[in-house]
Design brief:
This protein is an alpha/beta fold and about 270 residues long. About 35% of the residues lie in helices and about 25% in strands. β9 and β10 form a beta hairpin. It starts with 20 loop residues before the first strand and ends with a helix.
Amino acid sequence: MMQPLTVLQSEETLTLPTPAVAVEDLWFAYREGSWILRGVDLQIPMGGFWAIMGPSGAGKTTLMRILAGLLPFPRGRVLLLGHPVRGELEPALRRSVGYIPQQLGLVRGLTALENVLLGSLARHRGWQTALGFFPRAEIERAMALLEVLDLADRADEKVFRLSGGERQRVAIARTLMQDPQLILADEFVSDLDLPRAAHVLAFVHRLARERGLTVILNLHELQLVQEFAEHVVILKDGRVVFESPALDLTWPLFREIMGDYEREALK
């Protein structure tokens, strides 16, 4: 006797997980008609460690600033952690998105510890934090982050006295102080030599894995992308021209994709 077919009920249907970042047909121009981004599409999963590459002027920083809520855009759709955005992020979402700009945005006249504590401002209101008085629990938490990043002995040092690698790690600690779910880092190791950049990225990679964070980095060095990223996207002329697992992007393929841009950079 033939067995009846099993019919999958609606409540049993597969629900796809919400991506950390979803970008659909994104366009942006600083001046009318001069498009920097031209129909960008991206889907980045929760917990992903992704790198974005491309020549200068490709739109990498512009894309990162849009994701950070710093630039409104005229056309397209962007969702961060399942929430649609069009420009400035809502306060609750802003706390979940950590942004490290290329110039780091540290206050040079404050100490390493004071800069890290600035990452907790969104959790506190009132004149105490405005004047630099933070709860003991936050100070202990900031010190613990500096300890993890091998900076505990530099906590009371003014930022302008720190080395480039130390400043990078202070910026990371400040971002982690927010308790973000998503970290956006815009070429934040571009001023470091390769060994120091690898050292900083190793910290970020380990902490991201331990905390289940999603990380998106703009990077120039293919070696760093292959070593740390899970997935890579290449932008050229404001468009996504390549996307794959990072290890699939070999040097010959990278040079072929970059074409004239890469040849000029190697001269």
